[in-house]
Each structure stands twice: as C-alpha cells, then as structure tokens.
Amino acid sequence: MRLPVVGLTRSNWLREFSAGITLLAISVPLNIGYAQIAGLPATAGLYALIVPTVGFALLVSSRQVVASPDAAAAAMVASSLMGMGAAGSGNYTQMAAAQAILGGVMFLLCAVFKLGFLADFLSKPILVGFVGGLALDITVSQAAKVLGVPINSGGEFGEKLFDLVSHLGEANLWAMCLGTSSILILLWGRRIIASAPWALMVMIAATAASVLFDLQGKGVSVLGKVPAGLPTFSVPVLSWSTWLALIPSAIALTAVAVAEGLLVSRQYGEKNNYSTDPNRDLLAFGAANIASGFSSSFTLGSSTSRTAAMDVAGSRTQLPSLVLAVGTLLLLLFGTDLLADIPSPAIGAIVAVAVFKLIGFLDFRELWTQSRAECAIGAACFVGVLVVGPIGGITLAFVLSLVNLARRASNPAVDILAGSDDPTVSLLDEVDDVRETAPGVIIMRFAAPIFFANGSVLADRARNAVESAPHPVTTFVLDLEAVTDIDVTGAGALIALREWLHSRSVTLGFSRVRPPLQERFTRFGLLESAHLYRTNRDVVSAFRMEFTTPDADVPER
C-alpha cells in the first residue's frame, strides 16, 4: 500500500511540514464553527481532526485531499437531527456519532462493491444548487452571530431569516463591530497575502480584544470552556428505532460526500500527474467516518477549500494531515483554556467568509449560459434546500435530474440515411429533407439505447417514414451502430413494429449490430424473420445499387 508521505524528500519535508501548520491554523477555527452549525460542542469538531484524519491519510490514494467536516455536512447534520433531539444534549451528540458510523459503513459497502460510479448521478447542477442552498442558510445563521442577534438556529431557513430581520433592532453594537471588523480583515487579508492563516490571526486578535475589553460582560457571547483531554471512544447507545431513523440522512450525507470527495480527488490527481483509486478513496472515507463516530465526532467528507489551500502551499503528500492531527491533539491536551474566550462573532465571521463563495452565483451564471434546463435543476435544488430542507432538496433535484435524463433519452436523433443510384451524384448532397435511402429502401439510424422511454418514439418514427416515403417501401432497415442496449419494453415496441411492417409486406432488417446487442436481440426473438446486415453497404448491395465508394458504408447525415 502506498504510504501517505510518498514523495517526501529532504528537499520538500520542510515545505510539507509548513503546509501542515497552515492546515492546522485553518482547520481549528473552521471546525469549531462547523461543530456549532451542527449543534454540537466544539470538541466534536476538534476530535474529527485526530483519529479520523490519521486513518484517512493512511488509506487514501490521493496525495492531497483533506478529510474533515464541512459546512454542507454540518448543516445536514443539524437539519436531520434537530427534530430528533435537543442540540447539545448527550442524546443528540450520540445520534450525530451514530450517523457518522452508518455513513462510514455505507462508504465501505460502496468500496467493496465498487459503486464509485454512483457519484456521477449527482451532477454538477445538483451539487451547485445543493451546496449553494446550504451556504445561504449557513450565512444567515452566521450573520446573526456577527450581529449578536438571537435566532432559532434549529429552524428552517424562512424562520431564521424572519428572526434575523425582526430582531435587527436588538443587535449588539460590540458584537457588530467585532464581527464586521473580522470580516473586513479576512477579505482584505486574502487580497494581500492569500496563503497567510488569516482565520487563525482573526481568532487570536478577537479573543485578545474580548478579554481586554471584557466583551462578555457587554453581552458578547463566547465559546466557553472546552473540555481538555483525548476523545472519548465509545459506541453510541441508542435504540434500534433511532438507528433506523438515522439511515435516510446518513444515505444523503454519504451521497454528497461520495460525489464531492471523488471529484476533488480525481481533479487534483489529474492536475498534478498522479493516479488515484476511487474505491480506495471510498474505503478511506468509510474508515474515517467510522472512527469519527466512535470518537464522539460527526460526519466528514472532503474539504475542497482546505485541499485547495494545500495545493497552493505546494503540498503533494499527506504529511500535512498528520501534522494537523498531532497539533490538534496537543491543543486538546494543553491549550483548551486558550479557546474559552473566543467570541462567537469572530467564529461567525470566519465561517461566513468561508461559505459565502459556496452560494455559487458565478456557477449559476455559467450554467445559465450553458444549459437553461440544467440551470433550472440546480435552482430547484437550491430553493428546495431552503424550503424543505437539505434531504428534501437533494431528493427533489435528483428526481428532476432523472426526469431531464429521461426527457433527453426519449427523443434521440433519428435519421434516414442518404444514398443515390446515380454515380455522378455525391452520396451526401443536400440531404436536409431525405425521406428514403433509395427507391423502396429506408435505412434509419437511431442514436440511443432502446428502452421504455423511447421505444414507442422509434416505432412511430419508423411508421411515419414508411407511410411518407415517395416510393412504396419493400425493405426497412434499422442502423443500430449507436444503440448499446435494449430493454423488455423497447423489444416489445420493435416486435409490434415488425408485425406492422409485415402486414404491409415490408421486410425488416438490422445493420451494424454490436455483438452484445445481437445476443439480446436473439433472446427477445427480434431476429426471427428479420434480415441481419454487417454493414449498410450490404443492404444496398442486395439491391444491386452502384456506389462511387464501394468499400464504404452508406454515408450518414
């Protein structure tokens, strides 16, 4: 098995170690914020950076992907668990851990059965809309922290937005100054030195200001005492009914993490010229999530922002993740007192700046110019997440995506191939209105698998072609070069077409049939009383038609 530090040399170890320090500086404040979004104590976010991170780094095939809870996972955890238990309670914490374990098992099953291809069903529009909706929901919650406005963080988006607007008059001036200053520093700092750990510097400066000016006494909330020590390893003690109730949300979390994780892994592998193994990556995510659940943390996936940060820092090994794990462990053992006075407005500012770009304004503009239909699917997912929650939103978008796929597949290109028996005429001249290949012969090309959604379309187009041909048709041939499969319903449509043709004394034939498809045609009985042609040239040769290029197939439109 490839070691996580493959590629580590004397010349680059210092750069890799420095990247690990940068990753630590980025991850600690973000994970504290994401834990709060999920309704969990700060330690839940920090525990995810120790054992789960080490397990992932040792197993993953990617040299750069960073595994961690992210904004989307945190929001989905909160959305799915708020109705089952009070945020911050022991039962709630155990449900989040159980959810991670269930997700980890699903990752492992995907790896064992090599189901990484399922990630392709979550298309770019779905991911853009899903993550964008969650990012907007999170932004509203963090805006409330920045302004010091009390809202119901466990409510739906509309409820949060209404609470924020209706309580603006209660905003805390100190919290507002601290939060907006933090945002300005983060935005300005990234423009000046993008690679600097601005989140850590803002957190340190805000904590110092909180202590120096006694902001807690002026109504500014702080993180509070963080328990020191190692993670508590245990199996969540929950009823079987609760475990079963967690399965749907675990499936949704796993689906999103699979799609995003494999995409990020492949992108950076291709960019930096090293190979990745999707099923091994699924195994790594599975092990990391199981470790996260047993160590009192919550679901994690790939962190796109942190992976990008490591790429910019020049890291090409998993050593930074190991440095992150060791640094977090030392912080939990010896430095938790430093975390108690971190003001909530600063945490809100850090998270808000991190997730705001995920709303996807530029992505939606690009989708709009490329495909209005797919942009509509992304928008439906975006709105669905805000109106019915993350799980309902992704389910709605997934259904719409399948409907769009079926719509496209139900109306594929159907062409009548052109030919001429006059050797002085080009075989493919002015064929915009071709209605027959030759007098009495129609060769029709169908450019899609034949299945329940388009079988009747094919049959109808064939009947219309025969009836509208300028000469009585004696032979009708389907060119199946572009057809890769056929289902029972599609076979039934072809059988009905064959009977219709025979009733009109028209011979049915098939040309350029792929061997696997020919086996299915034989099984369905479609080759009975039908002619099989190796090429389209064989069709016209049967009628003694002279072509200027005798070794070529009948040209296609």
From TrEMBL:
Domain of life of the organism encoding this protein: Bacteria
Keyword Transmembrane helix assigned: yes
Subcellular location as annotated: Membrane
UniProt key word Transmembrane helix: yes
Pfam families, per the entry: STAS, Sulfate_transp
Membrane-crossing segments per the record: 12-32, 38-59, 71-90, 96-119, 126-151, 171-189, 196-213, 240-264, 319-340, 346-364, 376-403
Membrane topology classification: Multi-pass membrane protein
STAS domain ranges (all copies): 431-543
GO cellular component: membrane
Major place of residence: membrane
PROSITE patterns in the cross-refs: STAS (PS50801)
UniProt keyword terms in alphabetical order: Membrane, Transmembrane, Transmembrane helix
GO biological process: transmembrane transport
Protein name, per record: SulP family inorganic anion transporter
Protein species of origin: Rhodococcus qingshengii
